[in-house]
Design goal:
Blueprint: E1 2-10, E2 27-39, E3 47-54, E4 60-67, E5 76-80, E6 84-90, E7 100-108, E8 111-120, E9 125-128, E10 132-135, E11 138-139, E12 144-147, H1 160-172, E13 177-180, H2 187-196, E14 199-201
Parallel strand pairs: 12-13, 13-14
Antiparallel strand pairs: 1-2, 2-5, 2-6, 3-4, 3-7, 7-8, 9-10, 10-11
Helix pairs in contact: 1-2
């Protein structure tokens, strides 16, 4: 199985513009949706999915669960779990890349048959011809490089330590984003960027 996490900052404001993020407190309520892709589950009975969200300290802050659809001939099925709300959530930022974790477990007949953990950050991104780019309600100038997937002398194979070293050096130089180009990047590339605190412009 594989899991994806989508988050949407939310607010109780009645304003037509709905100011979703308080840039002073760096906190917001966030509606979080977890979608799970499961393959070959028809061979099992009583299949269910449960997920829990943990903060950076490992504390469980939310849970959700669902069963598989009863009528489908799909061998690979995407299941969207019921949405959960993270109250007073920490926001991911370039200078403070706060990450939550989603632990997803698939059970069949009461036994765990698969599990996966995905990290994710909660942030609000805005684009406009009037103000350019905003992250969490604050205007940000993108300062970075146009990057190819290879690692110079290390070669074209994905090398996580090399990727992280490059990203941390870019941060030291004052950059805050990387524009990807041409060939597909490794899955770990964006995960490391989330952890380090770099924005990715994916071509």
């Amino acid at each position: 199985s594989s899991a994806g996490v989508q988050t949407l900052p939310s607010s109780t404001s009645n304003s037509s513009t709905r100011q979703l993020v308080n840039s002073l407190t760096k906190r917001s309520n966030s509606t979080t949706s977890i979608q799970v892709e499961i393959d070959g589950w028809q061979k099992r009975k009583n299949v269910s999915i449960r997920a829990k969200v943990l903060d950076a300290e490992g504390k469980v802050v939310a849970t959700t669960k669902s069963t598989m659809p009863k009528y489908t001939k799909q061998t690979c099925t995407e299941v969207k779990l019921p949405e959960i709300t993270l109250t007073d959530a920490h926001l991911w930022d370039i200078d403070s890349p706060y990450l939550y974790s989603a632990d997803v477990v698939v059970e069949a007949d009461g036994m765990v048959v698969d599990s996966v953990r995905e990290q994710f950050g909660i942030r609000k991104i805005e684009f406009s011809k009037d103000f350019g780019f905003k992250l969490n309600g604050k205007k940000v100038f993108l300062k970075g490089i146009s990057n190819h997937h290879d690692m110079g002398a290390l070669g074209a194979a994905s090398f996580d330590d090399g990727i992280e070293r490059m990203m941390r050096r870019l941060k030291e130089f004052g950059f805050n984003h990387i524009r990807c180009s041409h060939n597909p990047y490794s899955e770990s590339f964006t995960k490391i960027a989330d952890r380090v605190g770099l924005l990715i412009v994916d071509e």
